Amino acid sequence: MKDWREQELMNQLRIKGKLELGEVVELLQVSESTARRLFSRLEEEGKIIRVYGGIQLSAKNPAEYSFERVAQNNIEEKRAIAAAAVGLLRDGDTIFCDSGTTVLCFCMEIVRRIHERPLNIQVFTNSLAILEVLSPYLPVVMLGGEYRPHRKDFSGYLAEIALSRIHTDRCFIGTDGYDGKKYLTTTDFDTARLAEIAISNSDMTVILCDSSKFAECEPIGYAEIGCVDLLVTDSGLDPVIRGQLEGFPSRLMCVDMEKWRKENP
Fold it and tell me: How far apart are CA 29 and CA 39, in angstroms?
C-alpha cells in the first residue's frame, strides 16, 4: 500500500505540476529532511524529477497527467488552432467539448467570438474548466461521473451513460499522442472511452491538437485518424507526419503560425 504522504504528494502534483520544498513540508507536516528522502525515493521510482527548489511530475511517466502542466505547453499554437476551429461553428449547433487543454483554448475563443457577435449554441462537456469558462455566456450541460482532479473533468460509468444518450452536430476532442500509424492515443481508458462515445454520437468529429502531440505516443489508442472528419493542428507538424496524415480520408488543417504571430503580436 502506498504511504499516505506519497499519495497526497502525487495528488497535489497532478493538480499543480510542480511543488516547492516548503509547500511539501507544509502539506505533509514533515521536516525538510523527511521531504527530501521522499523526493529521492519517488525520483528513483521514476515518478518525479528534482528541480531547483522542489519537484515536478516526471514527463516520462504517461500515467501522471497534470492539466496545469499540459496547459502551459505550446500556448501560442493552441490559441492559433482554437481561433481556426471557432470558424467551424454555426448558429444553432449542439456540440460536445472534451477536457483537453487545446479544447479549453477553443472555448476561450468562443467567448471572444461572442463578444464580437451573438452565437447561439448548446454545449455538453465533462470538463469543469470549460464549464467555468462558458457558463456565463452559453447554456452548458455538465456530464456527471467521478471527478478527476488531475484532468479537471468527470469520467466513469455515469459520464459514459449520459454521453451515450446525447447526439451532437460536432464534437471537439483533444489527444495526448499519436502512435505513428493510424491511432490517436491517450493515457487512460476512461478518457479513451468518453472520446469514442462522443465520436460515435456526433455528425462531425474535430480533433484539436498542437503538432508536438504527433511526436508522442501514449499507451491507449482510442480513434482511427481515418474515422475523424477534420484534424486541426499547426504548421510545426513534421513534414513526414504531415504526408502520412494527408494519406487518410480525414481533412487536415494546419494553421500557419508565422502568419498568426504577425496578426497577433
Answer: 15
User: What pTM does this model have?
Assistant: 0.75
Residue type, 32: E
Is 190:51 a contact under the CB 8 Å cutoff?
Answer: no
The pLDDT value recorded for residue 105 is: 92
Q: pLDDT at residue 1 above 50?
A: no
Burial of residue 116, with CB atoms counted within 10 A of its CB: 0-12 exposed, 13-18 middle, 19 or more buried:
exposed
Least Cα distance to 143 among 121, 132, 127 occurs for 127
Amino acid occupying residue 89: L
CA nearest neighbour of 15 among 150, 132, 147, 187: 150
Give the residue with greater pLDDT, 150 vs 66: 150
Q: Which helix (H) or strand (E) holds 20?
A: strand 18-20
Is 81:110 a contact under the CB 8 Å cutoff?
no
Q: Residues near 38 by Cβ (< 8 Å), separated by ≥ 6?
A: 5, 6, 9, 24, 28, 30
The mean pLDDT of the chain is: 89
CB 218 within 8 A of CB 187: yes
Q: Provide mean pLDDT across the span 163-172.
A: 97
Q: Are strands 94-97 and 230-234 parallel, antiparallel or unpaired?
A: unpaired
